[in-house]
Amino acid sequence: MKQNSLLTAAMACGLLMLASFNPALAGMNKTETQRFQALSADVQSLSSNLRSQGGDFNSRIARLEQLLEASNMQQMYQRMQTLDEENRQLRGQLEELSHRLQQFTDREKKLNLDVDQRLEQIESRRGSVMSTSPSVGYVDSGSEPYDPNEGYSPNEVTNVLDEQSQYRQSFGYLKGGQYSAAIVGFQQFLQSYPDSSMSPNAQYWLGEANYGAGKFEQAATNFEAVRSQYPGTTKVSDASLKLGYSLYELSRWDQAKSVLQEIVIKHPGSAVANLASTRLQRLKQEGH
Fold first, then answer.
1. In the predicted model, what is the mean pLDDT of residues 220-225?
2. Cβ distance 206 to 190 under 8 Å?
């Protein structure tokens, strides 16, 4: 643009110079007049060329500006495409991690179920031994036949069998995903046998049944009951973890973090501590 202005100024100066000679044309001879006219024609031609080139120069500048703008738009589009691809990759990785975490949680839950089932089978065998009597009693020097139920009344032996049966039935409902039936069964068990050695487990599985049914408020109450009523049992750490999960589902972020952090501190290196750490990281990523 600056070059165009300079050229225009030069043309103006040339025209002014020619104009200044107009008063003296009368004193020139024919040859000088022809030369002056030729010079004037050259100046006018130059002026016309400069104007034409100036317009072409402006159009070139405009074209360059358009190309630059188009280039910037292309770069922005390519950058957006790259960011979109990176976002898709990150989303896929997150979904894969979530799936792996769910698989790990399912395996851990299945392991707990298997362990509890084995304990329940041991208790069942013990109850079976208590209820079994021999066909012929051993007699020694005229003594009374041996009674394996000695020290237990018939009603007490029946109660042991009923206790085992009700617990197994409720546990079977839970394993089969029949959460409503499991909830009713474990509630009845705890009401009927509050002092049973299986009450801590029954209380925990009642919480699992409520959690599986999406009743997180009731589940939190059940898991807290395990912690407060049976503090010395093996189910406390598991109940604490599921309490943290229940509070998370209830959007009680601070309470959930407090419980999960307590697990990490009290049970370092354990499976429940690893699961608690994973959920704490998830809370942090979600901005809670």
1. 97
2. yes
Q: What angle do CA 83, 89, 95 make, to 5 degrees?
A: 135
Q: How many Å apart are CA 227 and CA 245, to the nearest integer?
A: 15
How would you class 276 by CB atoms within 10 Å of its CB: exposed for 0-12, middle for 13-18, buried for 19 or more?
A: buried
Q: What is the pTM of this model?
A: 0.49
Nearest in space to 202 (alpha carbons), one of 128, 119, 125, 271? 119
The Cα–Cα gap between 40 and 34 comes to 10
Amino acid identity of residue 78, one-letter, is: Q
182 to each of 57, 124, 166, 253, how far by Cα in Å?
A: 87, 19, 10, 29
Residue 250: how many CB atoms within 10 A of its CB? 14
With 0-12 / 13-18 / 19 or more C-beta atoms within 10 angstroms meaning exposed / middle / buried, residue 268 is: exposed
Q: Which amino acid is at 228?
A: S
Encode pLDDT of 113-150 as tens digits: 665 666 556 555 544 443 333 333 323 333 333 333 33
